[in-house]
Amino acid sequence: MIVVLMPKLEIPSTNCKYEERKLKKIFFGRKKGVENLLRTKEEEEEEENVNRYMEEKE
Fold this sequence. Notes:
Layout: H1 16-28, H2 33-38, H3 41-57
């Protein structure tokens, strides 16, 4: 299952620049934007489990 986040249709004027930068990061693949869109739910759960295990180990 691939999860795609849709941008909000109504953006408050104060958040306009922030939302625009966030969307650009997603579309241009910066800061894991595209990676997050392409990752499956199972991969996210697996990563969370690994992170939890590593934290418990420390």
